[in-house]
Design brief:
By secondary structure, this protein is an alpha/beta fold. The protein is built from six helices and eight strands; from the N terminus they run βββαβααβαβαββα.
Length: about 220
């Protein structure tokens, strides 16, 4: 799909400067914008794996750092502030041209879900969606996922304390059916233990293959 290039862009938002690291496909058909979680940044293993794998398949990957991370702060702000920054940087993502798939891991996935409809996202990719706080299944956040209003894919670790795949609601129960891919043995960061029947690299390859296949299916959406 042509030559892959990488560059970084700073975007002003009401919450401070955000930063977008672009992994650009030569002839992109989609942009996949990925935000990070509340406990880490764009160095997360799943975000890096997708940024490495997808541009060769015609998908530009934009790794988005929220202003609090750019400023070097240790604690994420309230969800409302995260949403405000995401809305403000969205025009920079859309300016690339192709349809934008909103996504992220953990807290970043929640931001993508909450804002997808209003921003006109083509679809949503939720990596390690925090369905509920650990040990508190009654505090479900399923409504955020079920009401995105666009096609969605959830990729979830089989041992994620924030919600195992078996805890998810019926995919057809929302405004638009979502898809769910489980990563056996994976925790919230998709780390797999040594006892797993496959390696960490193979787990990341499974994530990349699953996301790529789903994105391929969005071509005519």
């Amino acid at each position: 799909m042509g030559r892959v290039t990488t560059d970084t862009q700073t975007v002003d938002t009401p919450a401070g400067d955000a930063r977008v690291t672009w992994h650009r496909a030569g002839r992109p058909r989609l942009v996949l914008a990925l935000g990070h979680g509340a406990g880490g940044g764009i160095e997360a293993r799943d975000l890096r794996a997708l940024a490495a794998a997808l541009p060769a398949r015609g998908v530009t990957v934009a790794l988005v750092e929220q202003p609090w991370r750019v400023a070097g702060k240790k604690v994420a702000p309230a969800p409302k502030t995260l949403d405000t920054a995401w809305r403000a940087l969205w025009p920079a993502l859309a300016a690339a041209g192709p349809p934008v798939v909103a996504g992220g891991r953990s807290a970043g996935a929640r931001v993508a879900c909450r804002t997808a409809r209003e921003l006109g996202a083509h679809a949503v990719l939720a990596l390690s969606f925090p369905l509920h706080p650990p040990g508190r299944p009654e505090k479900s956040r399923a409504a955020e996922l079920l009401e995105t209003g666009v096609p969605a894919l959830v990729v979830q670790g089989g041992n994620d304390p924030f919600g195992k795949p078996s805890a998810y609601p019926d995919p057809a129960s929302g405004s638009v059916p979502y898809e769910l891919v489980g990563i056996p043995y994976g925790d919230h960061g998709f780390a797999v233990p040594k006892r797993a029947p496959y390696t960490q690299d193979e787990a990341l390859e499974l994530i990349s293959r699953s996301v790529a296949a789903w994105l391929d299916g969005l071509r005519e959406c």
